[in-house]
Amino acid sequence: MKLKWCDEIFFSLWFLQSLCLxxxxxxxxxxxxxxxxxxxxxxxxxxxxxxxxxxxxxxxxDTVARCNFNHTSKTFVVIHGWTxxxxxxxxxxxxxxxxxxxxxxSNVVVVDWLSRAQQxxxxxxxxxxxxxxxxxxxxxWMEEQFNYPLDNLHLLGYSLGAHAAGIAGSLTxxxxxxxxxxxxxxxxxxxxxxxxxxxPDDADFVDVLHTYTRGSPDRSIGxxxxxxxxxIYPNGGGxxxxxxxxxxxxxxxxxxxxxxxxxxxxxxxxxxxxFIDSLLYEDKPSLxxxxxxxxxxxKGLCLSCRKNRCNNLGYTVNKVRAKRNSKxxxxxxxxxxxxxxxxxxxxxFFGKVNVTKTNQPFLVSLYGTADESKNIALILPEISxxxxxSSLVYTEINIGDLLxxxxxxxxxxxxxxxxxxxxxxxxxxxxxxxxxxTQKKMVFCSRDGISHLTKGKEAVVFVKCAAKPNNTDTxxxxxxxxxxxFSEE
Length: 489
Known about the structure:
This protein has helices spanning 2-35, 61-66, 91-102, 114-117, 121-146, 160-171, 245-255, 260-264, 266-280, 294-298, 418-421, 475-484, and strands at 40-44, 75-79, 107-112, 153-158, 178-182, 205-209, 230-234, 287-290, 310-312, 326-330, 341-349, 356-368, 372-384, 387-395, 402-409, 425-428, 430-435, 441-446, 451-454, 460-464. By secondary structure, the chain is α/β, with parallel strands linked by helices. Strands 1-3-2-4-5-6-7-10-8-9 form a ten-stranded mixed sheet, sandwiched between helices. It has an eight-stranded antiparallel sheet with strand order 13-12-15-20-18-17-11-14, covered by helices on one side. It has a two-stranded antiparallel sheet with strand order 16-19. β4 (153-158), α6 and β5 (178-182) form a beta-alpha-beta unit. α3 runs parallel beside α9 (266-280). The chain is elongated and about 80 Å long. The chain starts with a helix and ends in a 5-residue tail after the last helix. It is a peripheral membrane protein. GO terms for molecular function: apolipoprotein binding; calcium ion binding; heparan sulfate proteoglycan binding; heparin binding; lipoprotein lipase activity; lipoprotein particle binding; phospholipase A1 activity; protein homodimerization activity.
């Protein structure tokens, strides 16, 4: 009996020793998993959005409690891009502050990979793989150790940081809820495989803002091709209003050099400020419209909201996952709030003499129940007799319901000698307008039955048409109505 008792004690001791050995192996493995992480994870606060005062350290559970991480709220993970100075850019605390203003109980984590981001660009671009891996390990640890739901996780990556976010999403064991790409970097990524850059497969929903896609694809600062479920190209994506040299000098004169980094990369960083705008101006969401090309959008042919053809830009985007990438366009102002109001204007030009003119300047004025927007400049690439033309007109002013439209044909310049000897004119019966934001379609008639639009002369006026029975339409009315039907891409 004593021998059996001793055997039991010996077995128990052996079992406990084995358990301890297993715990040591697991702990050693965790140390190996986390020791390669170079990125830092700063949980910033609403009171100090510009300071890194508390870090979440993967593998160290006490840091999560010490930083007061909220396990029941949303978490935003902000990933910066390439930096010349090796320091955070001025947009980082602005985005952190805006996120907390919109979601006060959330966690805003800023990923610090500055030491890798300040290298020669191709080197920093290659480091996005390691940064993405670091972020993925951090996310998996939070999910496994604290059972944090990834449905509450939203990654926001700017420039190179957008691709790091994409790689992180491709490596996590469970799917991330959302990734927002803020003008993802173009060089080294335009022709890269989907696994090495941001792609729609990296999260349940991926939305992307493209704000600086100028030049050839391999030289464009921002990636040109669509890389998300929804890809939005504000102002065509090539160049943003207010980012010219004159505007930069004016802002420096007003605000000093505090935001000079933003001015240098104005169009590239506009993606961030558009997203900030969507957080701060909840009552003024900017609406983007699906369109195959920016040229078609400029004609006003894509202002439809049928079948998810329009969507909010930024934080309140509707998470629509189409079978193919959805390219969307919109116009914006040069400063916050960026929202504008889009209109499609269609005009049929009549005349007894065939005339064709190119690149003609017009002024359109819109008068509504709430306000008016006068002398909106418009260039029509071509106008010809007995043809219908559609164009996009937009205004920063909310004019309410549209009541009246005026149209003026400007002289090109005082040096256009042909205008002195020839008086060009067209006849117009109606102007058709579609409001993008309200989806209202309206028809405006000449007060004189037919208006004579003469180049260089006063504007012609169109008011809402009076209701008229169909059986009184003339053949010309029917012809014009057919020509003016609103087109949708």
